[in-house]
Amino acid sequence: MRHNKKFNHLGRTASHRKAMLSNMACSLLKHKRITTTVAKAKALKIFVEPLLTRAKTDTTASRRIVFRNLQDKFVVTELFQEISQKIAERQGGYTRVIKTGHRLGDNAEMCFIELVDYDENMAKQASAKKPRTRRSRKAKDSEVENEAPASDMPKEEA
Fold it and tell me: pTM score, two decimals?
């Protein structure tokens, strides 16, 4: 029986799975969005969110724990300097998984996983929304009529 065994092994050995999740986490933190399968994205979310929470406190111990999982000092530096500043107020939910359909070759369910605070598309849509105004033809026609006779008048009459 598999009572209380919720961990997805992803069909890999423990060392392969750990290396894969570490590499995917580094790619996610570098590029802010990656495309993968839904199962891997869910496993990555469980892997990377505690690291993002740990990055909020910039101590030597925190850096060592994060480096132990990521094994890339440039990503760790970026995480503690830039990303932690953006996620400082957020209580959790640092990543978002959006399903994109099925892969052509093996019909695997695909998605992209992204850092929530770095999604430019959502930010553009929210700020780009302007109230719509209705333009009436009467206003334009009356302006054109008022301007036209003034230019047609000879200078002697005016």
Answer: 0.74
